[in-house]
Specification:
single chain, about 325 residues, alpha/beta, Rossmann fold, 2 domains, 7-stranded parallel β-sheet, 5-stranded parallel β-sheet, 12 strands, about 30% helix
């Protein structure tokens, strides 16, 4: 058995959901589940911590930790938790199951709006039989904000469906088949030729509240769908929920699909619940199997123990 311990701190889950996964596959590892009454002596032997939404007390109690592993591709739940982080690598979760699930959700939402599923559902409730005008995917321009692993995979799958895809990122990137834009100077040009805006942006100081009414008014209004749509599966803090609700109500947006929100769960009285032409899902666009997470984490730990660099570590200055 290895001397150092692996600590699991997964907000909202239970030890019964996680500990058996590690015990079955990695019986020689000493894996702990965090609790307030876990002894300081045990926590002092923690070398690696796997976390989702860690509490304030955690990092001060694991003084000898060597790396932190995020349970998601996003790391703002760690880096912006309001507490000082240990000076160790923070590793994002990058795996095919999460990537595929995210692309499935994005393609689904784009198709829902392309094929006017919400309008047909409304007609069905009213027992109306009417065929609506239907543009093709090749007439619709999807713009993806955020061209990392998730954004590039989604762009490939959207192009397979026939959509014309462009992308915007903070720094210049090249993606085969995708018209790319970068930096603040090219943001307006990107928005002006976008019918469906897909956000996969991380939450950073620069992106907080970026998706607001002013930005949404810059989207194309001359497209085949008769108005712009928003799809956000990135981070809720990158958008302004109240302004999106207003844009749906006043026609600035023709429709939207939101998986993330400024406040989660979305408060029961929030106007988004009653906004027109909106698909809401509870931050469920992409979530990884526990077995896949365990395999990824242990693969990274094996690299670390062999003296190899960890993969998918974040840049602290950029925040992702």
């Amino acid at each position: 058995m290895n001397d150092g311990s692996i600590l699991l701190y997964v907000g909202g889950d239970t030890p019964a959901q996680w500990l058996p996964v590690f015990a079955e596959r990695y019986p020689r590892e000493n894996v702990l589940w965090y609790s307030d009454d876990l002894a300081d002596d045990a926590l002092s032997r923690v070398e690696f911590a796997v976390v989702w939404a860690p509490g304030e007390a955690l990092f001060s109690r694991i003084p000898n930790v060597k790396a932190l592993f995020s349970l998601g591709a996003g790391v703002d739940h760690i880096t912006q938790s309001g507490v000082s982080l240990p000076d160790v690598p923070v590793v994002r979760y990058v795996n095919d199951d999460l990537t595929n699930a995210m692309s499935e959700w994005i393609v689904l939402q784009c198709l829902i709006h392309l094929r006017q599923h919400l309008a047909y559902a409304e007609q069905a409730r009213a027992r109306i039989w009417r065929i609506l005008e239907q543009p093709g995917a090749d007439e619709v321009r999807v713009g993806i904000m955020g061209l990392g692993v998730l954004g590039q995979d989604a762009s490939r799958k959207l192009m397979t469906m026939g959509f014309a895809v462009s992308g915007w990122s903070r720094t210049e990137k090249t993606v085969p088949g995708v018209q790319t834009f970068h930096g603040n100077d090219q943001l307006d040009a990107f928005l002006a030729q976008t019918d469906i805006l897909v956000s996969l942006l991380p939450h950073t100081r620069e992106t907080e509240g970026l998706i607001d009414a002013a930005l949404l008014r810059k989207l194309a209004r001359d497209g085949a769908l008769g108005g712009p749509f928003l799809v956000n599966a990135g981070r809720g803090k990158t958008q302004k929920d109240d302004e999106i609700a207003s844009c749906l109500a006043n026609g600035t947006l023709k429709g939207a699909s939101l998986d993330v929100f400024q406040t989660e769960p979305l408060p029961p009285g929030h106007p988004l619940w009653s906004a027109p032409n909106l698909v809401i899902s509870p931050h469920a666009a992409a979530w990884s199997k526990r077995e896949s997470v365990a395999r990824y984490v242990m693969g990274q730990i094996a690299r670390f123990r062999e003296g190899k660099p960890l993969q998918n570590t974040i840049d602290r200055d950029q925040g992702y």
